[in-house]
Amino acid sequence: MQNYLSISYDILSSNEVRTCDDSTNFKYRLTPFFSSEVLSLPIHSYEILIDEGNRKVFKLNFSSHNTFFNFEPGLTLGVLPNNDENEVDQLLMRLGVESVADNYFKLGILSNTKRKNACIPKHIPECCSLRKVFLQHVDIRSVPKKLFLKSLIPYVEDAGERNELELLCSPKGSEQYNELISSYSKRSLLGLLNRFTTCNPPVEKLLEYLPPLLPRPYSISSSPLIKEYFTITFNVDTFSNNEKSLCSSWLEKAFMSLRKQFL
């Protein structure tokens, strides 16, 4: 499958500063949580409800000051997380783009592309850095579709790995594919590239396929009579290989960082 995106990097001098306005692309990450404006809310207070082995339950109270929105029990709040910074660092190194990860890039459409209606993915900012895109804009842990796996085959050097990837894309490989997507670490982009060590796709090929990083739903669990804050309660489960879900672990890190400030 031929690429249709091109990428070029802007090397700025040390005294140049560039701002990145990604507000236009931001709306493509909000589905289906678009009933209100995007809010940046401080944490009012917090509490650990359960801390037992591989299971933790947290209660976070967000300040409702200046929200101008009626929060009631049962309503769903969409939390827009970032990807794990360490995972993104490893991914940038694996792709061999760490030297340009903080440079601004420009995406374009190849003039010789044969793809019909080729366009730049709307959730990726036109002016941005690879680090920010992989941290905030694309989902690097989403379940990989077979079409995406198939697109990686031309970039695999080892014949054995190529055969394994072809099997995953085929009807005969359904059992292996289901086993792959059942694990966060195996199905993640980094997990795939670490599994297929001779697979070296260009970063623009990945940007053609990676979906937007979407909000995760959490139910509001506090009374509307409380005007100072509203509450979400969430659990963080540690699965095999120390795996955790993306957003809950991101909230946990925010929780623990805040906790250290008061210890």
Automatic annotation (TrEMBL):
<dbReference type="InterPro" id="IPR017938">
    <property type="entry name" value="Riboflavin_synthase-like_b-brl"/>
</dbReference>
<dbReference type="InterPro" id="IPR003097">
    <property type="entry name" value="CysJ-like_FAD-binding"/>
</dbReference>
<protein>
    <recommendedName>
        <fullName>Methionine synthase reductase</fullName>
        <ecNumber>1.16.1.8</ecNumber>
    </recommendedName>
</protein>
<dbReference type="InterPro" id="IPR017927">
    <property type="entry name" value="FAD-bd_FR_type"/>
</dbReference>
<keyword id="KW-0560">Oxidoreductase</keyword>
<keyword id="KW-0285">Flavoprotein</keyword>
<feature type="domain" description="FAD-binding FR-type">
    <location>
        <begin position="31"/>
        <end position="263"/>
    </location>
</feature>
<keyword id="KW-0274">FAD</keyword>
<dbReference type="GO" id="GO:0030586">
    <property type="term" value="F:[methionine synthase] reductase (NADPH) activity"/>
</dbReference>
<dbReference type="InterPro" id="IPR023173">
    <property type="entry name" value="NADPH_Cyt_P450_Rdtase_alpha"/>
</dbReference>
<dbReference type="Pfam" id="PF00667">
    <property type="entry name" value="FAD_binding_1"/>
</dbReference>
